[in-house]
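Hi there,

I know you've been waiting on this one. I reran it after we fixed the sequence typo, so this is the corrected version. Both the input and the resulting structure follow.
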Amino acid sequence: MKAGFYECDITPAIGMERPATYHKLFIEKINDPLKARAVVIDSGSTQIAMVGVDVCIVPGDVTEKVCAALPGIDVMLSASHTHYGGPARLSKFSGDTISELIRKLAFEESVCADPDYTAHLVSQIVTAIKMAERRSEEVIFSFGKGTAEGVSFNRGFKMKNGHRATHPGKGNSEIVEPFEPIDTQVGTVGIWRKNDCSFLGCIVNFSCHGTCDGTGATADWPGQMVRTVKSVMGEDAGVVYLYGCAGDITQIDNQSLSPTESGPEYSKVVGVTVGAEALKILMKAKKGDISTLKCKYATIKIPRRKPSGKSLKQALEIVNQWKRDTPFHFAKERLLLEEFIKKEPEYNMRIQSIQLGPLVIEALPGELFCGIGLEIKKRSKFPFTWVSSLANDACGYVPTRKALDPKCGGGYETRLTAGTCLIPEAADMIADKASEEIKKFTPDAVPVGPQIAPSNHVWDFGNCPPELE
């Protein structure tokens, strides 16, 4: 088995749009470089490239263009979900086929992709993959998992009124308990040179929003995690981050009164914590060969939720007031959805399944709630199972069915928008299909490292009865 790493810069320019919310925001300064970090693994018959991309989302058309430029390589693109990255978001509308109102809402009042930046992004991702392929060398692998406690929290809460709320406010007396769980697992694959067991690079999986640092363009906490690993393992080491299932997971602890869970310094808290855990796993690594590298694809059709006629009438009334407040933004989104759903009433979700020895990775589009990933992990027979959401495409938030239950659900992620609109059954459909795909693979044994023959010779110093006199 061969592997190689490479990274390319994708830092956006000052003045570009940044896709972080439902209205236009612009990049005002650069805090740290943003990268496309690639690893290519080659079994001789299969080549797989996994790329951690420092963007909020990876639009499907970016994935398609990258794949078209790399025939013969199975490509997985994972957005780090930084909220201060470049304008890679794909517009759902063509300006010459829509009404003047929809055109204005879609292009003047919403985040738009920048064609020049998108072309640069595609080029840099392709370059990172090609260079990683050229730098490939014979390797062995290690697999491990640990936990990073106290840096990720579910932002959805059951409130005293019986319903779910998102970010209800720190210390709010109406909070009953977190609505759903978190996943603190840090998954780490170590890749080591076969000739001398020196460190080549690693792949890390963890579930948390990239929302620590909103003060300038940044790779956010995943960038800090990468720097943490490199500071110990070497600046030439490759580190690829694959985003987990964190649609409802952030660094904000709403049950704490601490004011310090945001900003550049706090991105270090999260990144160093996760990076330190990855390092601990690498330090204890049992290295060895693996025999299996596979990639499979499946597609499921998921219907979209449709806005009611009454809600559309109300939305139009709100939009026509042009207040540009919260009601305006979500009314705008409802009108855009009504237009978009005419041409795409269903979403064709492409599920990518990758086996790397004893590890299986389910790469899924959309911001999946953490509970969906945990369900897939629970059903898996593999020693190591990762679920990477926001992979290869975007389809908005995918809440659990419970979060969309009118009797107890609710919250920001359940709002109906042009991007977030899949039916309540989507979570179960995705978990079922992903679990079905995992069953098509058979896990390799976990590497155990070098072994010696058993000994029947007791240490001379220790082979004695107690000396009492």
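Quick highlight: The chain has two domains: 2-293+351-394, 307-343.

Best,
R. S.
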